[in-house]
Amino acid sequence: MSLLLKTAFATLLTLLSVAPVHAESLDVRIGYLQWVPDKGPVLSNVISEPEDAGLRGAELGLADNRTTGRFLGQNYELESEVTGSHDETLAAFKAMHDKGTRLFVIQAPAQTVRAVMGQAGDDTLVFNAGAKDDALRTTECHVNLLHTVPSFAMLTDSLGQWLNMRRWNNLFLITGPTDEDRAWADAFRRSANRFGLKIVQDKPWTFDADLRRTAANELPAFTQARNYDAVVVADVRGDFGEYVPFNTWLPRPVVGTQGMSPVTWHFTIENWGAGQLQNRFRAMAGRDITSDDYAAWAAVRSIGTAVTDLNVADAGAIRDFLFTDKFQLAAFKGRSLSFRNWNGQLRQPIPLVHPRSLVAQAPFEGFLHPNTEMDTLGFDRPESQCRING
């Protein structure tokens, strides 16, 4: 045998000896459920969310999982249902569950998340990628429910830190008419108290005029006050908030759900390798990634990260792993992310953006915490009644 053949044969034996051997492949089945209620007509011509927001993020997470899984004998499948009602979502969950699916990502209102958890058994792990309600993290926690979408409190705490840092302490708060508007505003009032801010005017929005024609007349009068440093808007669906900037009585910045906003993700984020994530998503979906997409992607990638380490698809084992120090989600936000063991919330920095630029990212230097400064955003362990992991 020639020297060349001997060398090649030795190399082959070496590769075979170190390559992982899988007696059989591992199938990982993930169910994705999405129900976004009709928000009704809005008074402004805002750009609506894509109808597939969330679903396409889950699909990108699946593609990322498959990239690693193909080398480890792991086969990932995503069964998705975009439903039209609360009841349809529950029926879709039951159908998937009856077929053996035990890993789920759900983007739906809080009441639907609660109902799903009422049907889920102890052997089922669910990721909430849509409901921001604080109660799901403080008083109504479920041991097998994790949250990859930030809570209202996390979003408003990031804004509160920024306002405190800028010394914009006196605020004019405008709250819209929907339940989500009131939930956002309640979270901001807590944040204002937490970070030493003063709400000098706290007014509900009660008008139903078409602001495309009347904003220049309505808003200066509505925001008339002796003094304030910034206007904070709580208008989640976009009824009026788009018209507040540049129409206030005093020449002041606008922040909140419009103006400069705290979000889960934004297409202008480019640091920490985020440009690569953005480009892959655009190539797949033909549009920019949204916050809903990112939360769903993070959920599917959390599953993939656990399966890669454990080489099992058991929901209980995955859940336990996600609460260990071994789990760190590489999530293009400049830090490795982890889950809070008392309420299942994914710790994560919060970008503060305006429509075409990243302004800053919370948490900010100077806001201290004994464990991690990311726990300065949202309800910390002493503030939550939940103890889902001891």
What's this model, at a glance?
This protein is α/β, with parallel strands linked by helices and 390 residues long. Helix content is 37%, strand content 17%.
CATH topology of the largest domain: Rossmann fold
The largest sheet has its strands arranged as 2-1-3-4-5
**Rounded average pLDDT:** 91
Spatial extent as radius of gyration: 23 Å
Instruction: Write the H/E string, N to C.
Output: HEHEHEHEHEHEHEHEEEHHHEEEE
> CATH top level of the largest domain?
Alpha Beta
- The percentage of residues in β strands lies in 15-25%
Q: Please give the CATH architecture of the largest domain.
A: 3-Layer(aba) Sandwich
Q: Structural class of the secondary elements?
A: alpha/beta
Distance between the termini: 64 Å
Task: Give the total of domains.
Answer: 2
Number of helices: 11
Shape: globular
Beta strands, count = 14
* Low-pLDDT residue intervals, each spanning 5 or more residues: 1-23
What is the assigned CATH homologous superfamily of the largest domain?
Response regulator
Question: What does the oligomeric state look like here?
Answer: single chain
The amount of helix comes to 25-40%
| Biggest sheet record | 5 strands, parallel
